[in-house]
């Protein structure tokens, strides 16, 4: 049987093991959406992952969801990322950037501009702003002629990512952000070619991915999906059909991978595995509760045909997670209070396992 510690060819890379550090926003970027030296240390500490997927990175100012997240839409941002990717590579790792356009999950107090979405339907819940949580505002519905510009923003950010030394990009098509809003049947009420039928609801995702493949190549392009997920109030009608059609279209593009969150029933997810001929990363434990992804979840999904397994919180609290899983050492618990608090505490302070005699 496939082991988590077998190597795997992904795009143009050879991953030394099948663990992936899941994308996790830590909102510690400097003003202007700039990566910092602490971010370089954080990712470098975790370079034994088969692949690191970075925190969500905005492809444009209007695409920024939370304050304190880094961007890939200015030259200064590209320059600031270079020491991060270099530090990961110097420590023997590989890193993709997650390109995340928040769409309606954003706020004018964060970006200085009104959020946009497929339709003028607000997200459910409060969004982070520089002055604290505020109700999600009603977004401005994109005009039909504006939609391709937002799809292209992923591709432009991807080109900048490669320029900054990333090995590739993952488009954030999950968790209720812009691509997921277009896939949704209650956030997307459009009557033009981007809404209504399954073929229309997947159009934005396909345009964004196709443009990215054209910009940086299929071997450097992946996408993350959360079938049936209800983050920020999105709902999806026709889940098996929606994702089967999306994966069929994506399979023509020969992507590096599809990264699926276990947000749907297992039989639906196994069906998607069969519908996707390429590399599949599974993120096994959702919705997020006290239980974190562990070795048994990984082996379960490798047995069901996943190629790679992503771990989120495990990698926050255990920079040496791969070694701990491989040797059966205890996995340290994560401190939720430091997820988004800024500074190096709870960021750079988790040690590798301390052996005692
Ligand atoms: C602090 C934190 C930040 C996160 N930020 C992102 C993000 O930027 N993009 C994303 O796709 N998922 C994000 N996630 C979700 C994780 O990638 C992952 O799906 C989730 O933690 C479940 O996996 P786990 O049980 O291994 O932690 C975040 C999760 C946490 C805990």
Descriptive notes:
Helix content is 32%, strand content 16%. With 357 residues, the protein is of the alpha/beta class. The strands form 4 sheets. Strands 3-4-5-10-11-12-13-14 form an 8-stranded parallel beta barrel, surrounded by 4 helices. It has a two-stranded antiparallel ribbon with strand order 1-2. The longest helix is centred in the middle third of the chain and has 17 residues, at 147-163. It starts with 7 loop residues before the first strand and ends in a 30-residue tail after the last helix. The model has no long low-confidence stretch (mean pLDDT 97). Bound molecules: flavin mononucleotide. Flavin mononucleotide binds at residues 22-25, 55-56, 98, 172, 174-175, 224, 261, 283, 285-286, 288, 292-293, 311-314, 339.
Write out key terms for the chains shown:
357 residues; alpha/beta; eight-stranded parallel β-barrel; two-stranded antiparallel ribbon; 12 helices; 16% strand; globular; binds flavin mononucleotide
Rounded Rg: 19 Å
Put simply, the count of helices is 12
Strand content: 15-25%
**Structural class, from secondary structure content?**
alpha/beta
- Please describe the biggest sheet, giving its number of strands, its sense, and whether it closes into a barrel: 8 strands, parallel, barrel
Multimeric status of the protein:
single chain
Mean of pLDDT: 97
Termini gap: 34 Å
Bound molecules: flavin mononucleotide
Anisotropy-based shape: globular
Helix fraction by DSSP (H/I, runs of at least 4) = 25-40%
> How many beta-strand elements?
14
- Placed side by side, the strands forming the largest sheet appear as 3-4-5-10-11-12-13-14
Q: Summarize the helix and strand pattern as letters.
A: EEEHEHEHEEEEHEHHHEHEHEHEHH
Unreliable spans are none
